[in-house]
Specification:
Layout lengths: L1 H21 L6 E2 L2 E2 L10 E7 L18 H9 L1 E7 L5 H10 L27 H7 L3 E6 L13 E3 L6 H7 L1 H4 L5 E6 L50 H30 L6 E7 L14 H4 E7 L8 E8 L3 H8 L28 E6 L10 E6 L2 E6 L10 H5 L1 H7 L5 E2 L2 E2 H5 L4 E5 L17 H17 L22
Parallel strand pairs: 3-7, 3-8, 4-10, 5-6, 5-7
Antiparallel strand pairs: 1-2, 4-9, 8-9, 11-12, 12-13, 13-16, 14-15
Helix pairs in contact: 5-7, 7-11
């Protein structure tokens, strides 16, 4: 009798197991949960290479004729270069949280910096890109700057250690990942060209190092630049101090380029370049006043170069408007992982790769709240075709400075001498901003002519305001309450 019972039990278990396995034939992610492994050896490897504070101003592929970036320029000839690619917040940690979640920071608690006393952190209910890819059968690895929290939300299988200022060393450390038998996702994040410590020099007019050292870095050629030769972006003052700092910034970027070239050579040596998608971006614009921490174009309009070996068209310049909030769904799409599109604020732009134009990609949004915890200045942005609206929610406050930008000789050269202008803008207008800024970027790419108060643009202004409100509702933005104190999104912290 016992033997019969055991046999019946075994058969019943086997049937249940068979039914269970067959119910999972269609591998997919439902509600951002993977029901089975979907990756196969034929699935593409993916490298997401993220620089720190690199604007489109300093890349040969984007028109800079002075800086030396041959490896990144080559990537552009082999893939697609986007000229309307945007981060959602020009702040390192906040931007990186969006890159890895596909959600705006105001909806995930990622309002600003993670480190030190700033201590902003993503809600632990969020499922990030590396976790989703790992559940889909990818091996995931990261190296360099992390700057997101908590770790369980942004978990990678492998954490590699190297000097994040030496991208050649970083590339060498990735050898084991490139040899992986499983499809891999490599998150490669440099500290360059972020400003280097100390942020405040002994003498105010000494340029920041941007991580450069007199003795250089092992296996890296030191590429220096003459301050007289650099290209000063139009939003900055053309001073001796600005030029000296830009020369240091360029040197740091040339170091990035060498490490990127090393990584691509290693990938080719492994025979995997034809099955590896490579993406190059930056988290936000150059670390100069008027760019980083700002939602003006120099702060949020960034390099984005994608090489997908399966796309036949190469050396393409795309005008499609894409955003870092789109990266997670785009990468999942590239990895051929099915996912619930409603779980992300962004959407895949995979279809735009290799195409010069994409009519459906003509609108982006941005959302900045903090950088450092002492820098409360929430801004919301919509760009629709050529019009861009900035809502400075805390416009009654003086625009706050990041500590490293305040100490920069570029800013101090204007501040200490009581100059009326910082670049083309008055210092007073730089520090005290109107509630709304409306620009026609086709006619005014430098965002100098605010149309918000002009009768001829009243309908445009109201239309874009309506778009912002809808965006805030869709993405659960707590700051929607600031429209006439609309409490429809008020959290449970209010006692009724």
């Amino acid at each position: 009798m016992k033997r019969v019972l055991k046999r019946v039990t075994f058969i019943a278990f086997s049937v249940l197991l068979f039914v269970s396995c067959n119910s999972k034939k269609n591998n997919k992610i439902t509600d951002n949960k993977v029901t089975n492994v979907v990756a196969t050896p034929a699935s593409p490897n993916i490298i997401l290479f993220v620089a720190d504070d690199h604007g489109i101003d300093a890349l040969g592929a984007y028109g800079n004729t002075v800086i030396k970036t041959p490896n990144l320029d080559k990537l552009a000839t082999e893939g697609t270069k986007y000229t309307n690619a945007y981060c959602t917040s020009a702040s390192c940690a906040a931007s990186r949280s969006v890159i890895l979640t596909g959600k705006f920071g105001h909806a995930t608690g990622s309002y600003g910096h993670v480190h030190d006393y700033h201590h902003f952190s993503t809600y632990d209910s969020i499922t990030s890109l590396p976790v989703l890819l790992n559940k889909a059968g990818y091996t995931t690895a990261r190296i360099g700057k992390y700057h997101v929290a908590p770790e369980k939300v942004y978990h990678f299988n492998t954490v590699l250690e190297a000097n994040p200022r030496n991208t050649v060393e970083m590339a060498d450390k990735c050898a084991s990942v490139l040899k992986s038998d499983k499809p891999f996702f490599l998150y490669f994040c440099t500290d360059d060209p972020h400003r280097g410590q100390p942020f405040t020099p002994e003498e105010w007019d000494v340029p920041n190092s941007f991580g450069n050292k007199k003795e250089g870095y092992k296996d890296v050629e030191t590429v220096t630049y003459n301050p007289n030769d650099v290209l000063v972006p139009s939003f900055l003052p053309d001073t001796k101090q600005t030029r000296e700092e830009i020369a240091q910034y360029y040197q740091s970027i040339s170091r990035i380029d060498q490490g990127f070239g090393k990584l691509m050579a290693m990938l080719k040596a492994e025979g995997k370049e034809k099955n590896t998608i490579v993406i190059y971006i930056s988290d936000n614009g150059m670390a100069f006043p008027g760019a980083k921490t700002s939602v003006h174009e120099p702060g949020i309009k960034l390099p984005c170069i994608i090489k997908d070996p399966t796309v036949k068209n190469t050396n393409v310049t795309s005008s499609a408007m894409v955003s870092w909030v789109d990266l997670t769904p785009t990468i999942l799409d590239m990895a051929k992982v099915n996912y619930n599109k409603n779980k992300f604020h962004g959407s895949s732009f995979k279809s735009t790769i290799g195409k010069k134009e994409a009519k459906d990609f003509n609108e982006i949004y941005a959302s900045h709240t903090f950088h450092e915890i002492t820098m409360y200045y929430p801004m919301r942005v919509v760009r629709s075709n050529n019009y861009k609206l900035i809502w400075n929610i805390a416009y009654r406050l003086e625009y706050p400075f990041a500590s490293d930008l305040w100490a920069s000789s570029t800013w101090q050269s204007v501040y200490r001498t009581h100059q009326e202008y910082f670049g083309p803008k008055k210092v007073q207008d730089f520090l005290f901003r109107p509630e709304f800024e409306l620009y026609d970027l086709d006619k005014d790419p430098n965002e100098l002519n605010n149309l918000a108060g002009k009768e001829a643009y009243k309908n445009t202004l109201e239309n874009l305001k309506s778009k912002l409100k809808s965006f805030q509702t869709k993405t659960s933005d707590p700051w929607k309450i600031m429209w006439n104190h609309d409490a429809s999104l008020q959290g449970t912290g209010v006692n009724l």
